[in-house]
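Lab notebook page, bench 4
Experiment: in silico fold of construct C2
Operator: M.H.
Input chain length: 140 residues
Purpose: comparison with the prior construct
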Amino acid sequence: MEHLGIVVGIIDEMSLVDLFNQLLGTHAQKIISAGQVVKAMILNALGFICASLYLFEKFFEGIPTENLLAEGIQREHLNDEPLSRVLDKLYDAGLTEIFIRVALSAADRFGVKMDSFHLDSSSFHVHGDYGSGTDDEASA
């Protein structure tokens, strides 16, 4: 399990599986819930292996999925079907809204004091010296 046990502990302490099940819904006939798939995606992303999502199921070879995700969940349950279903649900629910809900949940759970909020999702940034706005600099 290596460091994945620590990651699972934080996910479980934040009740992220329940939060994602609430946000994305559940289906009684599915073996793995949306929240458990998100938990598995987080583990995959933090697994220190640069692997594409089409190798998602392969990532869990030799990893105790029942210990990390939930009793009864096997590696073969982590295939393209639940992954694509949950990715579609995440997109439909709105990724910014979900990010805000998870961030606020984490802040609340771990007692982070928030006096102000700032969300900048742009990728625009400035490098180098930022001029004073004189005409000479503007024409350069």
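Observations: The chain has one domain: 4-109. Residues 129 and 135 are 16 Å apart (CA to CA).
Next step: discuss at group meeting.
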